[in-house]
Amino acid sequence: MAEPNKTAPSTVNATTSVQAKKSSNIISLLAPIICIILGYSIWRFVIGNSANFTSPDPAGGFWPKNEGPKTDWARMYQGGIVVPILIGCFLIVFTFVIERALTVAKANGKGSNADFIRKIQFFLADKKVDAALAECDKQKGSVGNVMKAGLRKYKAMITEGELTTEQKILAIQKEIEEATALELPMLEKNLVFLSTLASVSTLLGLLGTVLGMIRAFGNLGESGGGEAARELSKGIAEALYNTATGIGTSAFAIISYNIFTTKIDAITYGIDESGFTLTQSFASLYK
Fold first, then answer.
1. Is pLDDT at 9 greater than 80 in this prediction?
2. Is residue 187 domain-resident?
3. What mean pLDDT do residues 110-116 have?
């Protein structure tokens, strides 16, 4: 009786060498609170220092009614209670710009991603997989991490005898996709603070300006003549500090966000190119 034909398994081995990365979210939890508190401290004790006014209110408590600002910097204090919130927003943006800059710089790794991929292609063409793995260790970036995970599966598939070439390529692709799924969230993490504050800061600035205008026109009804015009112009000028601070913070957040997304797109392109390199190399060398 003839033995049944043995066929390769129809499913790809699900095991993977990719390990989930442990990351702390403590910065995103504490930074906004600390920045808002620091923003109030700057507004209350630095900008609102008694030395900056001709008629300070030393017993004013949370919101002293200091009058007679000596400088433009001191006039910003009289913009109202929205000003410290706007200062806090600017500090939040500044904090996450630094945090993202460090993260993206680390993700870029050492050297050019294009040069790194060309070196990997050269090593694979000569079937020097171990040399390619060593090059990934030198790169130390997201592209290198994904390439390293793919190369490990690549190396394992060379000696795998039960799978077809198509199944081996699918296994390599799966490994690359899993490694990519772990790398990309780390790159995009905390960008939501920049995108949110890019619009919220402007709205807060307009809110502060509206509140300042309400206060200015309220004071106008209590005075008359030239004094009324002077108080109105002073109130409008103080209210516009909110708009200026909000727009400045928003512009800083938008520019930073666009810079980071551009850099992340470049890294993502490098990851995609690395995956294509591995699958095409395996398909051509190990048919």
1. no
2. yes
3. 90
Q: Does residue 154 sit within a domain?
A: yes
Task: For residues 243 and 256, give the distance between their C-alpha atoms in angstroms, rounded to a whole number.
Answer: 20
Radius of gyration from C-alpha coordinates of the chain: 30
Q: Please indicate, yes or no, if residue 6 is contained in any of the structural domains.
A: no
Residue 186: inside a domain:
yes
Q: Compute the half-sphere exposure of residue 42: CA atoms within 13 Å on the CB side of its CA.
A: 18
Burial 14-25 (b: 16+ CB within 10 A, else e): eeeebeeeeeee
Q: What is the mean pLDDT of residues 78-84?
A: 89
DSSP 58-119: TT-TTS---EEESSHHHHGGGG-THHHHHHHHHHHHHHHHHHHHHHHHHHH-SS-HHHHHHH
Task: Please count the structural domains in the chain.
Answer: 1
Checking if the pLDDT of 13 tops 60, the result is no
How remote is the C-alpha of 158 from its chain's centroid? 39
What's at 264, amino acid-wise?
I
Spatial separation of the C-alpha atoms in residues 89 and 93, rounded to whole Å? 6
b/e map of 218-239 (b: 16 or more CB within 10 Å)?
eeeeeeeeeeeeebbeebeebb
Given pLDDT bands bounded at 50, 70 and 90, which one contains residue 252?
very high
Domain limits at 75?
28-285
